[in-house]
Amino acid sequence: MIFTALITLAAGSASALMFASIISGAVISLLLFYLAPLPLMVAALGWSAAGAAAGGLIAGAGLGLLVGFPYFAAFMITVVLPACWLGHLALLGRPASPGPSPAGEPPAMEWYPVGRVVAWTAGLAVLTTMAALFTLGTDSDSINDALRRGMLRVIGTRDNATPGEAEQLVDALVKIAPAAAAIVAMMTLTLNLWLAGKVTALSGRLQRPWPDLNAATLPPMTLAVLSLAIGLSFLGGLVGMIAQTTTTALMMAYALNGLATLHTLTRAIKHRGFWLSSSYALVMVFGWPVLLLVVLGLADAIFNFRQRYLQRSKPPVPLS
Q1: pTM of this prediction?
Q2: Lowest-confidence pick of 55-59, 170-174, 290-294
Q3: 3-state SS of the chain?
């Protein structure tokens, strides 16, 4: 018990230090800032989500005393809440059958679906993004004005930027800033959870078997929520901003669905590793190919490409 408490407190302290490193302004601090949920996720998956939450709360309180309450609130909303809740969901399980298991054998468990964890990740990405934007203002106009002033200060310092060019560039960046922040939040939360799972699995502390990520599917309701968000995104004001952020996060969730589909449909292809690595490289270098993954993920959600492929590829059952 004491050892677990020390582990979770150390994880919370590490996350708080990584989060606070952004104050230094160093380039490496940006990487540490994005990886801040990782220690708490490792503690949640390997020891206890509740203990990780307590360790994060104590470390956050210390951070608040040192640098101010706004940092405490930001740390709790953007780091502790997502890390501990996703860790809790990943370990949710129940017996697969209500009957008693054979003597001496642990009961077969049914674990919380990975696709639902991805949907929660998208929701938390929207929450953390909007929480960060609400620190700039309480309505869309004040948020956009604050973003515009900040970007003008940065872009205006360039020697080769004329005032007209700077304003045009800033206006374009302000429009895409909430969506870009949602993409970053979605990807960093997903990466941190995957890394935490790998770390705890390699250490033997992961309290569930490693899931089949290629079989993960988003809940059917996700498509309805995405359709609603797309419709509301054409509205102006705060509602439109929230809808655009939600649309972007859910599209990234479907991009992950598309990656799982790509991994499944290429199982029988020669040089599969080369084609998959090339696809990852194209996405990372150019960015826009992620839209193809979104389309593939949406198509799989509607037409069940993976399920049909796996049914066709199953060997026939021999006649008795």
Answers
A1: 0.89
A2: 170-174
A3: CHHHHHHHHHHHHHHHHHHHHHHHCCHHHHHHHHCCHHHHHHHHHHCCHHHHHHHHHHHHHHHHHHHCHHHHHHHHHHHHHHHHHHHHHHCCEEECCCCCCCCCCCCCEEECCHHHHHHHHHHHHHHHHHHHHHCCCCCHHHHHHHHHHHHHHHHCCCCCCCHHHHHHHHHHHHHHHHHHHHHHHHHHHHHHHHHHHHHHHHCCCCCCCCCCHHHCCCCCHHHHHHHHHHHHCCCCHHHHHHHHHHHHHHHHHHHHHHHHHHHHHCCCCCCHHHHHHHHHHHHHHHCCCHHHHHHHHHHHHHHCHHHHHHHHHCCCCCCC
